[in-house]
Amino acid sequence: KAGVTQTPRYLIKTRGQQVTLSCSPISGHRSVSWYQQTPGQGLQFLFEYFSETQRNKGNFPGRFSGRQFSNSRSEMNVSTLELGDSALYLCASSSRPLDTEAFFGQGTRLTVV
Amino acid sequence: DAKTTQPNSMESNEEEPVHLPCNHSTISGTDYIHWYRQLPSQGPEYVIHGLTSNVNNRMASLAIAEDRKSSTLILHRATLRDAAVYYCILDVNRDDKIIFGKGTRLHILP
To answer: Residues 70-99, chain A: which have Cβ within 8 Å of B?
Structure first.
């Protein structure tokens, strides 16, 4: 079966713009989580959605938001981009909320200039 | 905050076993121990997880100390493709989220 698909793979944006990233989980998985990875901070949890509801949120400002659709696909939005938002954004899917094996996508590399 | 402690990096020779340690002294009775690894330019991938007993799968073995305050991921015969950052993670049921620490960067020498 197809793995976790993240689009786009690469993105360049300007400070102040907003961006929307997409994640399609493995078919049948209802939990999608988002992570930000930077060289300095490592992998940091952003938020998790299960059945269209946000269940958990990490320590990120309100500029970072997300949603999940009825088909379990999820989007992450970052508004008013800052240079520090440049990172690899990863999503992970699992059948249940992260108590067993989670599958990660290859990520979206966002560069803010 | 990450609840696990791992060495920053380790080296091993190809085709030799590798033991990757992890300390998790604050673990509680219901916390699972998960290991993920991240190969260069890829997202993390699941390796193994366990609760109390040692676990084996096709990728690795997980040895859990009797007091559960530490565990060791064992790669029985390392290959160059095992070079990656290995993350030891506590799955805290109350939070239902994966918190990654810094991980151990494993270098495999040919």
So the answer is: 90, 92, 97-99
